[in-house]
Amino acid sequence: MREAIFLFIVVVLGTGGELCISRAMKVVGEVHDFRPSAILRFVVRAMRVGWMWIGIALMTVAFFSLLAMLSIENVSFVVPVTALSYAAGALGAMLFLRERISAQRWLGVLIVCIGVTLVWLSKH
Fold first, then answer.
1. What is the pLDDT of residues 52-105, one digit of tens each?
2. C-alpha span between 79 and 68 (Å, rounded)
3. Contact 82/9 with Cβ under 8 angstroms?
4. Whole-prediction pTM
5. Residue 64 near residue 99 (C-beta atoms within 8 A)
6. Which of these, 81, 97, 80, lies nearest to 89 by C-alpha position?
């Protein structure tokens, strides 16, 4: 049961954090100038976007949940099951960022989910 709770936190909050940071970066825009002063200005602009901070907070909680999960489970179990993030990422990108997801990509997500199911069932 603990594994399922930590997995949920890692997948949902980690993916949610990535989606928030992606939204923040779309507000900030692309990096075109790679001089140190321009990079610093870019980072300062990014830190002023609320989505960035929400994303960082969500990813922080997900990271510590991953550490907790690794403390109770083998890495050969944890790494494959956290691949559910790919499915959550595609779904979140479609719903939250309004991205179009191709059928080929959905097929890839389905294959990942089948693999995660096999790993989960081999444990239980």
1. 999 999 999 999 999 999 999 999 999 999 999 999 999 999 999 999 999 999
2. 13
3. no
4. 0.87
5. no
6. 97
Residue in the structure block whose two tokens are 């900030």: 28
Q: What's the rounded Cα separation, in Å, for the pair 10 and 67?
A: 10
**What is the number of structural domains in the chain?**
1
Residue 82 to residue 66: CA distance in whole angstroms: 9
Which alpha helices (DSSP H) does 1-123 contain, by range?
Answer: 2-28, 36-47, 50-72, 75-81, 84-95, 103-123
- Answer yes or no: are the C-beta atoms of 81 and 6 closer than 8 Å: no
In Å, what is the CA distance from 79 to each residue of 7, 29, 70, 73, 75?
10, 32, 9, 10, 6
Domain interval for residue 49: 2-123
Contact 6, 69 (CB under 8 A): yes
